[in-house]
Amino acid sequence: MKLHNTEYRIQNTEYNHSRSARKGFTLMELLIVVGITTILAGVGVSSYITQQRVKLLNTTAQEIVGYLRYAQQKSIAQEEGSQWGVHFENPADGRDFYALYTGATYTTPVETKYLPTGIVFQTPSSGNSIDMSYEKLTGLLSGSSYKQIILQNTIGLTKNVLTCQQGLISQGQDISICSAVVDDTPPVISNVIASNVSYGSYVDSPFDLSADISEEQGGLLSCEYTINDGTDWYLATIEGFGPSYTCIKTGITSADGTSLTLNMRATSGGGTGTGTPITRTVDAIGPTCSDNWTDNWTANSPVNITITSNDAKSGVASTKYCVDTSDSCYPSTSGTSVSVSCASGSTCTQYARYAAWDNVNNVSSVYSKRVRQDKQAPTDGTLTAEPGNAQVSISWTVASDSGSGLATSDTYKLVFSTSSSPTINCTSDTQIYTGTSTSYLHSGLTNDITYYYRVCAKDAVNNMSTGSTASSTPHLLANGELCSLGSDCASGYCYVDEDGDRYAPASGTKRCQPLSQLSGVDCCDSDSRAYPGESTYYTSTNNCGSWDYDCSGTTNKSDDCNTRSTTLSSPNSCYRYVTCTGSFTGYVGCTYNTGTTSCGNSHWYETCNSFTCYGYNVDNECVAGTPTVYTSSTVTKVCSCK
Question: For the chain, what is the radius of gyration of the CA atoms?
C-alpha cells in the first residue's frame, strides 16, 4: 500500500507540474472570452437602461404620491388656515412640473418641482393642467369623485397617480377603486380602426386593430376582437387606467383579397359593450411595374424611360427610381420618368432600377432595365494607297469599336479628292465605295495626278469615325516598285521575286521586274541557287535551311552518310570525311591521298588498292561505286561517314 500511495503522489506531482508550466491563455481562448464578454455587455447594457427607465418612472410616481399626501396633511392640519393642493401642468413650451399651492384654486406656487428628464405628463395633455386640492380637516378630494395624472417615459411605459374623492391616494391603480356605486352601465366602444396602414376600404397584412373604450366607473375586465362579424371573438389587450381605455390587437394576418368584417367589444362590471363593425379588404401584394425601354445599343443621350405602375386593390401611392452602373441601387427618387445620360465620346452601360408602393405600403419587386449608350465613334485602322498605271490600289486594316460594335453592312465609306485631304467623317467629297471589304482598286485615273483618300468606319448605331487618310500618284512603275498588275510597270512584268532567279514563290510582295516570270514555284526565294529543276549538288543547305535545291519537295543533298565498315573479303571500300571522327585501319605500307567523292565530300582514298568511294545514286542513297574485293588476310578496315 505504501508503494501504491507513493506512486500516486508521484503521478499527482507530475500533473501539477504540467499545469503550473502553463503560464497563460491561447489567443483563441482570449478571443472567445472577449466575444462572449462583448455580447453579454451589450445585452446587459440594454437591459440595464430599460430597468433604469422603469425605475425612474416608478420613483417619480412614488414621489408625487408622497407630495400629494403632504398637501393632504397640510389641509387636515389647516396650516395657515387654508386648504392645500398640488397643481400639475404640461406647458406647450418648457418642462412639465407640479407645484404646491394654498387655497381652493391654484394661483401662486408655494413650491415647484420639475419632472426628471425622460418623464413627461401624458395626462394632463400638452397645454393643459390638473389641480388636486384637499378639504380642511377631512382631507377629502375637492370637487370630484376622483382625479388622476398619468406619467410616461421615453419607451412609452405609463404610470398613473390617482386621488379618490374619499381621500385615497395611490399609484398604478384603476379608477374603479374610487367608485362607491355599483356599475350597471356597459362600456362604450368607439373608433374601431384598422392599421398599420389603411387606405379606404383596404388594409395591409399583418395589420393592427384598435378601439377607444369609455367606462366612467373604470374596472374594465376584458376586451376582444373579431374579423368575421362576431362569429368568433379573440382576446385583445387593454391599455389605460380609466375612464378612457384602448383595446388593441397587433399582428392580425389574412390572405390577400380577403374581405373582413372587423369589430371590438369590452366587458366591465356593467356588462359588455360592442363597437360598430367596419369592413376591410386585405391588400397584401405589391404593385407591378413595366417600362417602355427596349435594351439595345443607342446613340441617343439622354434616354428617357417612362415607368408604368399598376395595383389592382388599394392603388399606387408612389413610384421611385435610381440609376447606377452596378445594378445595385435602391429606388429613392420619386417619379415615373427616368432620364439616363452618357457623355459625348463615351460608351456607357447603366441600369434604371425602379419600384412602386401601394396605398397600404406594399412594395413591388425592384425592376431593372439596362441602358447601353454609344457616344463614341469607331477607332480607325491604317489606310494604304499603292500607285499603278492609271490606277491606285487602296487597302485598310480593320477598324475597332468598344461600344455597339462595327456595323454589319456598309461598314466602311471611301471617298477621294484631287485637291486636298477629304473632310473628316467622310461627309463630303466623292464617294467611291461603301461596304464591308477592306480593299478597293481605284482605276481609270490620270497618271501623275495626286489622289487624296479617306476611309471612315461606321458602328452599329451609325457613329462615323474621323477616318484614316492616304494619298497616291498613279504612274508607270520602275523596276523594284510595288505593283498589282504588269500593266502598272514600265517593263510590263509584275510578280514576286526577291532573289532575281525569275521564279516566283507561292506568296509575297509583288514588284516590277525587268524580265518575264519563268514557270514553276520557287521554294526558297532568298537563294537564287534553289529553283525548280536545279541539278547542281552543294555541300551545305540553302539560305532557307533546306537541302531541297530543285524544289521537288524532297531532300536531294545530305550531310550524313550511313556508317560503313569493311572487313576481310568485303567487296566494299569506304571513305570518311576529313572532319569526321572514327577509326580507319589501313593496309601496312599503303599511302593515302585526299580526293573528292561524287557526294561532294572530302575523303581519304587508299591508293594501294583499287577501292572506289561512295556517292549518291539516283535515289539519293549513299552507295559504293564498282567495288573491288579486298583479298588481304591481314588487313581490317573500319571507317565512318558522319
Answer: 56
